[in-house]
Amino acid sequence: MMVWKNAALLAMALLVVGCSSDSDKEQEPAELTDFEEEVRLDEQWSRNIGEGQGETFNMLVPAVDGETLFAADVTGVVKAIERTSGDVLWEQDLELPVSGAIGAGAGLVVVGTLKGQVIALNAGSGEEQWRAQVTSEVLSAPQTNGDVVVVQTQDDRLIAFDAATGSQRWIYENTPAVLTLRGTSTPIVTNRLVVAGLSTGTVLALDARRGLPVWEQRVAVPQGRSELDRVVDIDGSLLLSGGVVYAVSYQGRVAGLDLESGRVLWQREASSYAGIAQGYGNVYVSQANGTLESIDERSASALWSNESLARRQLSAPEVLSSYVVVGDLEGYIHLLSQVDGRFVGREKVDSAGVRARPLVVGDWLYVYGNSGELVAYTIR
């Protein structure tokens, strides 16, 4: 039954556009508009990472630890790359269908698979350190604080493993929603807390050492008569900045929560399955209908809203310098001003699309296209 639900909601995630008309013309992605280019990107290097994202709506976002960038493809190819030169440091082929990638930190690189396996590699050599089995497929990147590796499964369980040995430390079980989107948000793991977004529209914080609940906060309340109307998954990765946890749900809200208590600091209606970014006291949301919105954290009011990318299946946004970067289904990355949301730059990266959130480290931008091309840019 879970397979049927995933397939049905995957189709919905791909087609959801916030439009009630059945017209084929209205369901097409918005055509790109011309603008005066103010910012250009310089490609520094490009590397192929196997077969890329695959056909099952994976979002295999690369990860950076120190000066090394790690990326994985859907077939299990994992590469470590020096992030400024593009030199490949090592490559490992797990020969398994990777669906949750990639977590990196404390000397480990960790991925999850469609078959519910969690595999930890040595970050320096790529040698396998351990592997463990969980209850269902892993669709988000495992995270580590050096003591534990935490995995969130498709059935909303949170499982912690000893980072050194892979032995299970604890498991926290949740009851998933009746119908869910295909995907889970990537949990936040600090030295003390594990914070996760669930398919029920709830954000949960657990004690990292023992897996005991610390607080729970509802971000979205299911509404509507049908099960489709009541889907409120938190699928976009959570964000932690300055003691604030940022979360956004599908058909629900975007909110800022106090890390220690879970108290709602601000909230606003939103619908996103991609995710959010934060910068300059503003939060940027890739809405499910293709609108990119900037929200003032102090007032929870919209500063600007750009609707020109309607139905273009936007990736989660990212902040690069004074710009917001977002990818789309035709493989473009768009740069918008953080001040007023106007387009300032655009680059074609991958004709197969850009589904994974762009990755920013300092003044470097890394974009992983659906077909497997990983490209590093700097601002010209």
TrEMBL record:
The keyword Repeat does not apply. GO terms for biological process: Gram-negative-bacterium-type cell outer membrane assembly; protein insertion into membrane. SMART domains: PQQ. GO terms for cellular component: cell outer membrane. SUPFAM superfamilies: Quinoprotein alcohol dehydrogenase-like. Residues 76-306 form the Pyrrolo-quinoline quinone repeat domain. It is a lipid-anchor. Keywords: Cell outer membrane, Lipoprotein, Membrane, Palmitate, Signal. It comes from the Bacteria. Residues 1-22 form the signal peptide. It is found in: Cell outer membrane. The keyword Lipoprotein applies. Part of the Bam complex. Belongs to the BamB family. Part of the outer membrane protein assembly complex, which is involved in assembly and insertion of beta-barrel proteins into the outer membrane. NCBIfam families: assembly_YfgL (TIGR03300). This is Outer membrane protein assembly factor BamB. The lineage of its organism: Bacteria, Pseudomonadati, Pseudomonadota, Gammaproteobacteria, Pseudomonadales. The gene is bamB.
